[in-house]
Description:
Two copies of one chain form a homodimer. Chain A is α/β, with parallel strands linked by helices. Chain A is built from ten helices and eight strands. The two termini of chain A are 40 Å apart. The interface between A and B is large, with 77 and 77 residues.
Amino acid sequence: xxxxxxxxxxxxxxxxxxxxxxxxxxxxxxxxxxxxxxxxxxxxxxxxxxxxxxxxxxxxxxxxxxxxxxxxxxxxxxxxxxxxxxxxxxxxxxxxxxxxxxxxxxxxxxxxxxxxxxxxxxxxxxxxxxxxxxxxxxxxxxxxxxxxxxxxxxxxxxxxxxxxxxxxxxxxxxxxxxxxxxxxxxxxxxxxxxxxxxxxxxxxxxxxxxxxxxxxxxxxxxxxxxxxxxxxxxxxxxxxxxxxxxxxxxxxxxxxxxxxxxxxxxxxxxxx
Amino acid sequence: xxxxxxxxxxxxxxxxxxxxxxxxxxxxxxxxxxxxxxxxxxxxxxxxxxxxxxxxxxxxxxxxxxxxxxxxxxxxxxxxxxxxxxxxxxxxxxxxxxxxxxxxxxxxxxxxxxxxxxxxxxxxxxxxxxxxxxxxxxxxxxxxxxxxxxxxxxxxxxxxxxxxxxxxxxxxxxxxxxxxxxxxxxxxxxxxxxxxxxxxxxxxxxxxxxxxxxxxxxxxxxxxxxxxxxxxxxxxxxxxxxxxxxxxxxxxxxxxxxxxxxxxxxxxxxxx
Lengths: 272, 272
């Protein structure tokens, strides 16, 4: 049986969605159709949302699940009239927090993902520009500014991870591809030698690497199992020989790879 | 008075952090020092976390606030022994959800941000590559594949927004800078003419643009107030003349710009 779920907020909906997704993931026998409704910040929009919810209730012939972080009581009351089952995320926790903190919450709209300070924004944008300029070994002379330099075979996940670190944490992450020539050489590539303490390795199962490379260059030597096996084996040997910490990205999302790098390296976030 | 807050999880901690940040943002008279402790998935790590929490309690001379999404009861019990005030995010909502869904939760670790399917991962990576290859008007011949093409003056936020859309939603977003020559020409730049329905404009207050440009090229004509005023005015005129929907990014974070584009365009996510 299909259930419809709504993540509703007067802001971006990122918090409602993150929590809702996590909770629904615990019920893996149920198929959920998920909808995020951000910026529900007027009675009119709330009424439209209510109509959408009730339509889903009718189509599914069962109660939709609603996770909301709406702050304004009147707007929230409109959604409460729907035929959905509501989980009031903010309301549930603000009371206990007010008691513990001995303070009244100011309870304002969309605070969490609004721009906190321009300085924070600038740090993230600077870090994105750094990641772009120092992607894929394109430029190596600014490695002194890097917080971390990701290394790994082509298509092991370096670029998206660098961008995630930049966008979310304002971390300056460069990346350098370990090529076939590098592994055959059995030495750490020259541009990396002065920055050994900044290196972090990515590896990936050869089978998965071959699938990914095949999408880019089908039926090439580059994407063959033989080549992928060889490169992965040699890259991992290099990591061990040079004592470079590394993570296998095969079963990880970009968020997980990034979080594991943060834990393993202890790098501090530069922005939030 | 400073309070320390911890976001603790056996997974990435992204959910605990998103919710915790949102809730703490409602208490803007209190200064919080925030710490995310991801991958607390053994009793040993929980014990280390407990030590960290108790140290903060001693230093602050007050109770730290803990937001957790730890699934395993034994691991969670270890944290419960600390001198912190715990907000049990999952525990609070899973009971009511189980009743409503008439199902037992499988309650597994780190489900929410683990790689859901390889197809999802690939879509996001494809979209990141698309954003990189079609950044800043570098290439315009693949606009037929774009879900959206962001336009705007240099430094108005196009690139980070494209990357955010790609990383988070698997959306293929290209971007094209509107230059001084374009605005003086009073016409839509040639490469964009066939894709008017995909265009979305960014604008920004001239004062803020000047600050951002000054960081890149201090005291240049490019970053002068006069130039910024002129470009912003002309770009907005172009949006109105060509009926291009646009958003002013001055007070928005990258998340907010991206969410507003999703709402305004109605583009569907390609990955989650």
